[in-house]
Amino acid sequence: QLQLVESGGGLVQPGGSLRLSCAASGFTLDYYAIGWFRQAPGKEREGVSYINSNDGSTYYRDSVKGRFTISRDNAKNTVYLQMNSLEPEDTAVYYCAAGLPNPGGTYYYTELGYDYWGQGTQVTVSS
Questions:
Q1: In sequence order, what DSSP letters do the residues of the chain get, joined into one string?
Q2: In angstroms, rounded to a whole number, what is the distance separating the alpha carbons of residues 55 and 6?
Q3: Are 29 and 73 in contact (CB under 8 A)?
Q4: Which of 93, 87, 115, 92 is nearest to 102 (CA)?
Q5: C-alpha distance from residue 44 to each of 11, 39, 40, 125 (Å)
Q6: 89-126, pLDDT tens digit by residue?
Q7: Are strands 121-125 and 92-99 parallel, antiparallel or unpaired?
Q8: What b/e string do you get for 58-70 counting C-beta neighbours within 10 Å, with b at 16 or more?
């Protein structure tokens, strides 16, 4: 069974940090681009960060640049999202997703390019 499982969410005060993990089972992430998405209450799901499968190139949405870092450990079949300097606006359910690269060999910027999704992990930033 092909599965992605997120972990590491929780309640944190503004300015705090969390590290989300996305572990794959049933398939290897080596050839997949990975995206982290989030959905806040009453809002549409949005892409937060992506990492490529071959060269490890990355993308961050403007609101998280300099605060979040995406990384992958293919040996552990796991992708991470290190989140620092968290803000209340980061509160959301965070999802990881895996998809084959686009014809250009890089990640898709839309969730339509991702085939496998985790169940999500809640991140709440509040004092």
A1: --EEEEE--EEE-TT--EEEEEEEESS-GGG-EEEEEEE-TTS--EEEEEE-SSS--EEE-GGGTTTEEEEEEGGGTEEEEEE-S--GGG-EEEEEEEEPPPTTSS--SSGGG--EE---EEEEE--
A2: 23
A3: no
A4: 115
A5: 21, 6, 7, 19
A6: 999 999 999 999 888 888 888 899 999 999 999 999 99
A7: antiparallel
A8: bbbeeebeeebbb
- Residue that the structure tokens 């169940």 belong to: 119
- The single residue listed with the structure tokens 């968290």 is 86
How confident is the prediction along the chain (127 residues), in pLDDT tens digits per residue?
A: 889 999 999 999 999 999 999 999 999 999 999 999 999 999 999 999 999 988 889 999 999 999 999 999 989 999 999 999 999 999 999 999 999 988 888 888 889 999 999 999 999 999 9
Place of tokens 């998280």: 64
Rounded Cα–Cα distance for residues 121 and 117 (Å): 12
